[in-house]
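pasting for the record
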Amino acid sequence: MEAGIVGLPNVGKSTLFNALTSSQAAQSANYPFCTIEPNEGIVPVPDTRLETIAGYFKPQKVIHATLKLVDIAGIVKGASEGEGLGNKFLSHIREVDAIMQVVRCFDDPDVTHVTGGVDPMSDIEIVETELMLADLQTLENARGKAERTARSGDKEAKERLAVIEKCAAHLDQTKPLRSLELTPPEWKIVQSYGLMTAKPVLYVANVDENDLLGDGPLVQQVRNYAQETGAGLVVVCAKLEAEIAELEPADRREMLESVGLEEPALSVLAREAYRTLGYQSYFTAGPKEVRAWTIPIGATAPQAAGVIHSDFERGFIRCEVYTLPDLETYKTEAAIRQAGKLRVEGKAYIMKDGDICHFLFNV
């Protein structure tokens, strides 16, 4: 699963990507950071709970959950018709699972805006419009085949055609597909086409150093729009984050304090991107390692076990679970067990974010 960073030219997209990847690599001595290609990177998702758990187990290593980020070629008006790097942009964005759109919310005479002036809502509209036009073209291309097959009486083709027409009608009203109510089978059809406006969106408001908390009017416009559309928002000063990412840990802390930040905004961004993708974490803990595992929200205990190894899911017997507050109260697993706080859960258990688990299985 991966998130694609998109945006118009000169909004700070690549600066943000470079800062995020270099910063996370520098902070993660126990994680083998890698840049897959020049525009792809895998970064750890910061989680203070891991360090807290590690304080009780003193493990040999601590392993964070990870997130794959893709820095996608900049988009311009007309991309859906092949303008600029339109085709490359659209092909790459079809492959990601969520969209992180960087929106410029700062004025700088030395950095030209591609449309001639800073207008975050216009930027959002340009990207959204191009994606909707591209989705309409995809649906139009698919309609002909679905119609021909449906005429033969094929039930599946009829259902597919109905979804295509439903989605096209929604897009014709200039509404992205993520706002369309669909049944799980209908969503499965939508996902088979890689429709881009069906993907969840996280807006990243790129500000200057005078508005680090995003209190300015430009960010407020984006915040209001994100709330109206059910999207997430993170405020980041990409320029400052790039400077912080280059510092040693001790200097990094000092610089954060000097600008009034508790942690790098990039940490907030990584966590929010993780949430936008529909993920949560559970933990395993022992003297060898304390580790965060990534699962979809709503995953069952056997599905969570399968993330570690497919044998765990196939031979699942039960799951022993406790919480971080339990660990903080009783200090050791033995004491948690003795106090009767170690829960035993079966195959129907829905995992909760932050569960600390042992899986019992037999194959």
